[in-house]
Amino acid sequence: MASTELKTYVTCSAILYAKFVIATGIQATKTFDAGGRPPEDKNLPLAKGRPEQTYGLVQDEKLAKARETELRWRRIVQNDLESIPIGLLVFGAGVLAKGNSTVHATAMIAYTSVRCFHTYAYAHALHPHRALCWLFGVIAMTVGVGNALYGVFTS
């Protein structure tokens, strides 16, 4: 039977993966809305009914807001790529290290929650909420690292 830590890790990983897939999907549609795709993508289903695809190089006041939204979603995805892989590595190592299982599961749940809220806050331009979510994510990861080190050196 799988441990609580492993179940929590797998569940949090699945949630973070689903969140990432949804965020990249939204970012893709926002890129089409801003005309930011290569010209050869004009025949793709997502291009239908959207501006001409020119890598976003055409100066158009109507597209300025769409470009801003697209850049916001691009940053959301980039931020996920900067944080989530190392988070999964840290928490996965912590599962193997056998630290305090309650501390580790709580840190994983906290990290997963604040990463989801971070995306929402970033998408809706909520500040300082976005920064606080980032900070709490770092704290949760630090707790995970500390707990993993505790497990490795006390077992």
UniProtKB/TrEMBL annotation:
Source superkingdom: Eukaryota
EC number(s) stated in the UniProt entry for this protein: 2.5.1.18
GO molecular function, one term: glutathione transferase activity
Gene3D superfamilies xrefs: Membrane associated eicosanoid/glutathione metabolism-like domain
Chief localization: endoplasmic reticulum
Transmembrane segments: 132-153
Catalytic function, reaction form: RX + glutathione = an S-substituted glutathione + a halide anion + H(+)
Annotated keywords: Acetylation, Endoplasmic reticulum, Membrane, Mitochondrion, Mitochondrion outer membrane, Transferase, Transmembrane, Transmembrane helix
Subcellular location: Endoplasmic reticulum membrane; Mitochondrion outer membrane
Pfam family of the protein (one): MAPEG
An example Gene Ontology CC term for this record: mitochondrial outer membrane
Functional summary from the UniProt entry: Conjugation of reduced glutathione to a wide number of exogenous and endogenous hydrophobic electrophiles.
Quaternary structure, from the entry: Homotrimer; The trimer binds only one molecule of glutathione.
Protein name as catalogued: Microsomal glutathione S-transferase 1
Protein's organism: Globisporangium ultimum (strain ATCC 200006 / CBS 805.95 / DAOM BR144)
